[in-house]
Amino acid sequence: MEKVNIAIVGYGGMGGWHTDRILEMDKFNLCGVWDIDPERLEIARGKGIHTYSSFEEVLKDEQVELLTIATWNDVHKPLAIEAMRAGKNVISEKPVTMTVKDLEDMIKVSEETGRLFTVHQNRRWDNDYLTMKNIVDKNTLGRVFRIESRVQGSRGIPGDWRKEKGHGGGMLLDWGVHLLDQALTLNDSNPIKSIWAKMTNITNDECDDGFYTELTFENGLSDYVEVTTNNFITLPRWYILGENGSSVIEDWDLKGKSVLVHNWDKIDSVPVKAGTGITKTMAPRTDETIHEQPLEEVYGEWVQYYDNIYDVIRNGAVQTVNHRQMKRCIAVIEAIVYAAQNNCVVEFNDIYTAQ
């Protein structure tokens, strides 16, 4: 097996994470890392990792075939384009870039140079996502008409560049891009009809510290996505509603369950007290008409992401995270910003333009 030689550009949190994982893989050889911060390079050297003195030195290293770019969001585009023109294949950390126009420029260079260009959407391999996807794919609940996806924190935006608009900060571009990629991958062939959104600035005025959005697809599915950083009572990670049941996944540890109807015809109920009145409509179903079952847990292997990168470079495989998906995701992010700023519902065209 001929290993792929890789260098990491940006040795911060995610760059360090990529570096550690690469060192564990048998299909890749780490040539070294580069960062603009001398202290980060000193940390790398302390671990016995080769460091480059500049980005130009990385590009001049003829051994390097692949770069993983894990820098501030606002410099993904120029670094990726320069790298591809230097003959390197490129993985960009998410978000791949901040506008559809910039992404189109990057894709054009990829096509002109014949170099691999993709984005690191690692959360397609998260266990909670795969467990949710399995419920939908297996039709466990019958026709699913609503999916709710949330991540919630209580510490505001991290105190680094992620709170700075100029560097591409904000939760929409941080966590949002993950949850939206999951929603869009699940609905890869299901066109989006419309998008509603609200962005928040509770703890930060410069860029969003959270957002709420609802994607409505042409098949009627409503996909609600929420990221908050000022919430102290955590709601479920996933809540899935189908015509024949509901499922909940509480957290990343896969606590949850499904409740299914097995006797739709028996709908009579005894009224129950509800506040200062009674209700028959909202009375719970009787035990003989429903049953509860545990989640069928599905576990992912993140290394499959890099396995695909290897196969693209060495064996001419098709990349898993493709240009069309990348473009669709950034277009949705642009539509969310537009909908929130203009307090409107955006009629979305899956040719990647918001009307």
Main sheet: strand order: 15-12-11-10-6-9-8-7-16-17
Largest sheet: 10 strands, mixed
Number of helices: 9
The SSE string, one letter per element, is EHEHHEHEHEHEHEEEEEEEEEHHEE
Shape by Cα distribution:
elongated
Unreliable parts:
none
Structural class: alpha/beta
Radius of gyration: 23 Å
Give the integer mean of the pLDDT values. 95
Report the strand count: 17
Question: In percent terms, what proportion of residues is strand?
Answer: 25-35%
Alpha carbon gap, first and last residue: 49 Å
The helix content, as a percent range, equals 25-40%
Describe the structure.
The chain has 355 residues and is an alpha/beta fold. It is built from 9 helices and 17 strands. A 10-stranded mixed β-sheet has the order 15-12-11-10-6-9-8-7-16-17, with helices on one face. The chain has a 5-stranded parallel β-sheet with strand order 2-1-3-4-5, sandwiched between helices. Strands 13-14 form a two-stranded antiparallel sheet. Helix 4 runs parallel beside helix 5 and helix 5 packs antiparallel against helix 9. The longest helix is centred in the last third of the chain and has 20 residues. The chain is elongated. The mean pLDDT is 95.
Task: Give a nutshell description of this structure.
The chain has 355 residues and is of the alpha/beta class.
Keywords:
355 residues; alpha/beta; five-stranded parallel β-sheet; 17 strands; 26% strand
